[in-house]
Design brief:
Order of helices and strands: HHH
Helix content: over 70%
Largest sheet: none
Radius of gyration: 16 Å
Distance between the termini: 27 Å
């Protein structure tokens, strides 16, 4: 995959990353609330163990959201947030 670098003002970059991060955190919270769980790890573990098999698609989405959240957290630290 070809990555290009663009110039972007730090404040704008920080705002964009923070906004995306907030949206991802809201999505994570919605999934956890739907399954009455407090922890992403717990929901994923319970689903993998077959204790909440109907949550499989949400657990997959949750795994992807957590990965994106963690990547954006790193990026935000690099930007200086």
């Amino acid at each position: 995959m070809l990555m290009e670098t663009i110039a972007l003002k730090r404040d704008l970059a920080k705002d964009l990353v923070e906004t995306k991060l907030r949206i991802i955190k809201e999505e994570i919270a919605k999934i956890l609330e739907k399954w009455n769980q407090d922890s992403t790890k717990e929901l994923i573990t319970l689903t993998r163990a077959g204790e909440i098999p109907e949550a499989e698609l949400d657990a997959i989405a949750l795994t992807n959201l957590v990965k994106k959240r963690d990547e954006l957290d790193v990026l935000l630290r690099e930007i200086g947030g």
